[in-house]
Amino acid sequence: MSIFNKLSALVFSFGLACGFVLILHWPVHAAVPPHWRYWLPADGLGESCSNSVYTGPSGAVWVNHGHIQQMSRLDGYSVCLLPSPGVGVPVYESASGVLWSICEDGFLKYTYEGDWSAGEWKRFNVGGIDPNRTPFFPIRDGLILYVQSPNILLFDAVRGKTSIVKDIYETEIGGFYCMIPARGGGVWIGAKGILAKLDISVDDPPHYTWNEYVLDNEFQEFEIISLTEDEHGAVFAVVAAGNGAERFLLEYSGAGWEILYKDASGTLERGWGGIDGRYWLFQSPFSLTAVEGERLISTGQNKVLSRVLLDVCIEEKGVFWLATGEGLARYAPAVWRPPSGALERATLVHGMLEDPQGRVWFAFADALVCHEKDEWRPYPLPAGHTLEELKAEPVCFLSGGHIAVKTQAGLFSFEPASGIYTPIEHPRNQTISLIATREDGTIWTVSHGNGETALDIFDGRAFETVLQVRDSVILDTTLRHVLEDREGNLWFGGLNGLTRWRNGEWKVYGSKDGFTETSVNCIHQREDGAIWIGGRDSIMEFKAGRWRTIRTGLDMTRGIRTTRDGSVWAASGTGLHRYSDGSWVTHTWREGLPDAAVYDVFEDSQGRLWAGTTSGLSLYHHEADLDPPQTIMPEGANSKEYAPGGAQFFFTGIDQWKYTPRDRLLFSFRIDDRDWSPFQEDTVAVIPRQSAGEHTFSVR
What we know:
Blueprint: E1 10-15, E2 22-24, E3 29-30, E4 35-39, E5 50-55, E6 61-65, E7 70-74, E8 79-83, E9 92-93, E10 99-103, E11 106-111, E12 120-125, E13 136-140, E14 143-148, E15 151-156, E16 161-167, E17 176-181, E18 187-191, E19 194-200, E20 208-214, E21 223-229, E22 235-240, E23 247-252, E24 257-263, E25 268-273, E26 279-283, E27 287-292, E28 295-299, E29 309-314, E30 320-324, E31 327-332, E32 336-337, E33 349-354, E34 360-364, E35 367-372, E36 375-380, E37 395-397, E38 403-407, E39 410-415, E40 420-423, E41 431-437, E42 443-449, E43 452-458, E44 463-469, E45 479-484, E46 490-494, E47 497-502, E48 505-509, E49 520-525, E50 531-535, E51 539-543, E52 546-551, E53 559-562, E54 568-572, E55 575-580, E56 583-587, E57 598-603, E58 609-613, E59 616-620, E60 630-632, E61 647-650, E62 652-654, E63 665-666, E64 669-671, E65 684-687, E66 694-699
Antiparallel strand pairs: 1-2, 1-66, 3-63, 4-31, 5-6, 6-7, 7-8, 9-10, 10-11, 11-12, 13-14, 14-15, 15-16, 17-18, 18-19, 19-20, 21-22, 22-23, 23-24, 25-26, 26-27, 27-28, 29-30, 30-31, 32-59, 33-34, 34-35, 35-36, 37-38, 38-39, 39-40, 41-42, 42-43, 43-44, 45-46, 46-47, 47-48, 49-50, 50-51, 51-52, ...
């Protein structure tokens, strides 16, 4: 499976006057959207009001509601309703997959036989339990840990016995305020001035380990009012002063406490960790904010993200769930994101290179920026200079590790060791307007002056003239790219079209040759030798002496690159487009890219894919969405027999947790073992009449 593909397939057998069989294998081709997804009754949820949410070890998400008799189970593709244990009480799934909840003077265990919707809750009487005030968690099936001041207790459902695990008077704690399950087992407990960890062994009877992590002196009189733990074991605690006047978000990661945020308003209720150093704040009545370094990014309100937050559930990889009075929300980081630790530069990025040391260089509008390991080092361009943004290759490597940088007013050689930019002058005092990479480490330069245009090879020290032309129509000042193909032909593209130099002869391509683009922004040669031209609206291909249009509606293709898996990526004004096996997939702001034009795309030696846009840099995270979508063929919508003119098949799909919206899914189909069709958005396949007998229709 390609790292950029997710497939889920469905097979449909049919024939003349025959029945059909559905066989699901799970390969739909999916793109990937960012941020928020919502569940409401229209999606199968029991009701909008969602009081508690919990992701169990099975991967299912359990949601209990308010004053209705049902709760909801989500598996990512559908919602199943089952009996509710009570109004708004939490529901937890044990490690063995058993559901536990709480009631007045007792605990509840859910039992069923095969059908989740047809089970029932079995009661275990335990005196003194208040479902609205008693924190609890099933540490193992049949063993329920709970807090009933002044003690932490363990209820053994098998034996029907309760035992004291920890007496508050044996600790430094003045009172228990909150409890959450710990990712490595056991529980975290928040109290006044102290965070405690209770670990419980798997022995029978179990053994207990109690550790206390005292807050710093300035917070000794603060109460821990809420806790969360991230996938790396860091604990986030909201602490409140006794008078409620101010609150803080603190983080404990094993090496001590760190203050993340101070809230003087006293409205901070919850905080939790995210990815790439981000963390989240929730303040009443309903304000959700992401914190990235010094930036506070507010999340806008909508129907679900409004009114009241009732519960939070933290998963891995930055994913979390919010249960609100108006619905259920899931946040999942986008597949395209600004790289961690990167400089906050919302400017043009056009040009990306990697040197032999593994350092990746990015050409921003006003600086070269070096990324090495976790460090980002900017090297501002000389005063008064900005990057030449309209050329296909404004930066190229030179011999000796130097980097040629084309600005709007000149050409410079940048030395990474010293950080110095040295101007490069043409020996005939011509103006250098264009540079481009050559395979041997030298570069092409195009220069103008004295009534002529020159094509030179520059090795970092000297210029070697290859062509001199006085016909400004052939090579003019509007050139944007030059490419030497594997046969030694030279291709020149710019605002005035496309020209090729071959065996001492010029060829200007136009509509009579089948080349219909009016301008050229970039030129790329594929592995199979085909030449791709990125133009004003389309990409055109020259192969075996013929032109054909590959894709239209691109609004200026600025860069084309082939990655190691053979995919071709095109950076354009309408997004980043990937071509593989005859199919296109488009990445835009809906996949997390900035809402801006894409100028360049680059794969480094580690396989990381970078996108340079007019609003900054993005990095692709394929691991953000590995769950496959499912293909669906509605049984009642598809015929069991051929009509005289053939057959139509209707299908749709759903991505797990709605990560890819339905309108972004792409489908491919085939008959029997024939070639698959290109992926496309259509959800109807028209199949011509086939030979008599049974045939198999497959869609993915």
